[in-house]
Model the fold of this input.
Amino acid sequence: MSSREEILGNVRASQPEIAELPELEYFNQNSENPVEKFLEMATLAGSQVYEINDVDSGIEQLKKVFPEAKKVISSTTGLSFGDSTEWLNSDPHTLADVDLFITSALLGVAENGAIWLTDKVLGQRIAPTVNEHLAVFLSKETIVVNMHEAYDKTAEMDYGYGLFLGGPSKTADIEQILVLGAHGARSMHILLLP
Amino acid sequence: MMTHSQAADVFNKDEPRVDWHNATLWNVRKKRDKAAVQIPEWEKLRAIASQIKAHSLSNLSSYLENFEKKASENGVTVHWAKNGEEHNRIVLEIIQKAGLNKNSQGKIPMVKSKSMLTEECHLNSHLENNYVDVIDTDLGERIIQLRKEPPSHIVAPAIHLMKEEVGETFHEHLGVPNIETIPEKLVEIARHHLREKFLAAEVALTGVNFAVAETGEFVVCTNEGNADMGANLAKVHIASMGLEKIIPKRKHLGVFLRLLARSATGQPLTIYTSHFKKPRQGQQMHIVIVDNGRSRQLGRPDFRNSLKCIRCGACMNTCPVYRRSGGHSYHSTVGGPIGSILAPNLDMKKNADLPFASTLCGSCSNVCPVKIDIHDQLYKWRQELVKSGYTPKVKSLSMQMMRFTLSHPGVFNFAGKMGKGVLKNAPFLINNFLNPWYKQREMPEVPQDSFTEWYIKNRTKE
Ligand code: SF4
Done:
């Protein structure tokens, strides 16, 4: 008998009588203004959030924050900042010296300030992690109250890799003291479009 | 091997350190409280999470088959391992068959993100013996790997160490000229050191927090992003999962993720909550589903609830005994209250002392996000161990535990503060523990044991 058969057999023999699966709720009534909440939670998690009117003013903002960025790449086409084509087919290891990666998130979550990204929008899976700094366009309209709504809204999306990203990479492994920039992006800039 | 109580005695020799450890863990617990009260539906969520897990466990064989089917359709190879040994053999085979490049020492470079399961299986030493260079990449795990220590906490593996010790470790092993003690600098050193390892790795191994039967995807949660750095660069991604990690549907992730980070560290969500569904182009993705005693635990009605655990660590942070005895005193991969339920299932004889490393104050059960009846299970294990013939050892252990509790007022004060029956049921103890027993640090033999029995009986009535 294969290990698979043996394990499944043992599980079958051990598992109790079927227990009922509970109904889920959305818990999204009486919630605060989701955009305000998102701003608050994202800032708490260490992200910088800018409310902007259009993509161009977002790019102006980024150029101000990163005047010396040398290698800038983006998975959002049509931006006047950084390469948005060549890098897509390069070996992921070559992205280790990227100063700034610009992308667009599909959804924001008010209760935790996280954004939802997939390999489809990222171009390369490693892109939001291997770079030094990360900038993300997010439309206010896509902000949902909580994770229940977030899973509902992303249910039909096709992806091989999906990520709720809650801010810059961080660690508290040394004496529980919070430090930003563990392995992934040192800073995360959210450009909030109307 | 030292019993928990003997190891705790050693740990307790350094009183300032014990106080520091206690306060550090208690701070984490306070953060959890602050996060939990901000969610009005918190208690409802805990109940739902517990029910989803109960359901998943009751239909586990079908869900496992479904998960395997979906994952295979997604292009992921699924393997099954009865025990740790088979798991290690499978992982090595995957690595050896993939035709990977070796480094200058003739070893295949591999990066690993946090996985308590691989600790449980002792994977690292198996791979090291077979020309695989294993680098743990969670900062806490890397620190203890360099120091050749086991993790002392499932969420924060190096929580027992002070920054000076980390500085010394980096000085000794990473060639840092001085002994650095500023956390920001230490993290920066680790970032550069590990970046090199990520970029050189041929294979990445991650754990699994949740595996979704409906879609075949699995979710890995980290704050540092080390799982993503590893898996998204390497040619081969291996994910090791205990078979209890299955949940039925993708939408159920919402429930567990809202609870997990808040219970663990007080954050609303881990920074990287990553969903791996299909390998990227040209990459191999493997999942190893491990039993290693879990199906046996599933068959024990008294203890099957322990398989609901989502490894948040809250029961450890809150446990007065854990905080004052340290994670290493549990001589088991998962320590603290939940570890003390899981360990006897793996080896009853070796771990017979662990269910006694508790005051049964119930704080663990109160904070557990999936509502595991932890302290009841600890009590049931005690009975089970007695029945199975561990009586003599157990009796002396229970006395040792009482001595530990009563000679450490912090442990006992806590139980009092919880207002959970101690004051109500044991006024004579509260009146007395500060004088004859405490000063003497010894307990008269006979009353001690009868008190244990009496205390347990009264506690469990609630
Ligand atoms: S038993 Fe509960 S509290 Fe303890 S680690 Fe598991 S889920 Fe968390």
Remarks:
- Confidence is low (pLDDT under 50) at residues 414-462 of chain B.
